[in-house]
C-alpha cells in the first residue's frame, strides 16, 4: 500500500529525473498498464461545420488505473515522452485505432481517424513501415489515418522530422499540425511540410468569443491554411456561438465539448452511426 501511494502521487509530477527510483517505478507501472489492459482508447468526434456531419475522430488515450480511476493523458504522456516509453504507447494507440477503423468500416462507416505522434515518434525512421504493417492486414487504407504532430515536436529536430513526415505522406497517410499557433514560428517549415491540415489550438478558440485578438488569430489562421491549400480544424468548440462563428469564417471542421467529449470507442461507434451522412 505504501508503494501504491508513493507511485500514485508521482504521476502528477510531469518532470521526474529519468533514472531516479520514482521514475523507474512509474515506468514499470506504465509497462504493466499496457500488459494488464488498463489503457483505454477514447475517441472524440470531428464534424464538418457546414454539412453538420461527422467526418472522423481523434484518438485520445486514458489510463484506467486500478486505484486512482481514469487518469488523463497529461499526467503520464509528458513522462512517457521523457523516457522514450511513448513509442510503445503510440504503438498501442495505433494498433487500437487500426482495429477500430476496421470495425467502423464493417459497420458501414467511413471515418478518418487521427492519432497523436510525439517528438520521439518522429525520430523513428521505421515508423512509416510499422504503421503500414498494422493497416495492410486489416484492409484499412492509409488515407483514412491522420497523424497529428505539434510544431514543437517538429522543431526539435526539423530535418529528421521532415524526413519521417515525407515518408508518411508518400505512403498516403494524412498529416495535421496540432496546436497550431502555440509552438515556435515554423512558417518556413510549414511551406516545406507535406501536411494536409492545420488544427487551431483550443486556447484561441476558447477565447475567440470575448477577445477580438483571438478572433483575429483564428480568422488569419483559416485564411493562411486555405491559401496554402490546407484544411482547417478548430478544437475546443464549446458553444453554439463558437460553432457558428467558425463556420462563418470558413473553418472546415470542428471538435469540442459542444459536439461531444471524448468517449470510449464502443460508445463512439453508436454516436457516429447516428450522425453519419
Ligand atoms: P491534444 O492533442 O491537443 O488533444 C485535445 C485535447 O483537448 C484533449 O484533451 C481533449 O479532450 C480536449 N478537448 C477537446 N474538446 C475540448 C473542449 O471543447 N474544451 C476543452 N477545454 N478541451 C477540449 P486530453 O484527452 O486530456 O488530451 C490532452 C493531451 O494529451 C492531448 O492534447 C495530447 O497532446 C496528449 N495525448 C492524448 N492522447 C495521446 C496519445 O495517444 N498519444 C500522444 N502522444 N499524446 C496524447
Ligand atoms: Ca491532437
Ligand atoms: Ca490540439
Ligand atoms: Ca494541446
Automatic annotation (TrEMBL):
Domain of life: Bacteria
EAL domain span: 23-276
Keyword terms: Membrane, Transmembrane, Transmembrane helix
Record-given protein name: EAL domain-containing protein
Species the sequence originates in: Roseateles paludis
Taxonomic path: Bacteria, Pseudomonadati, Pseudomonadota, Betaproteobacteria, Burkholderiales
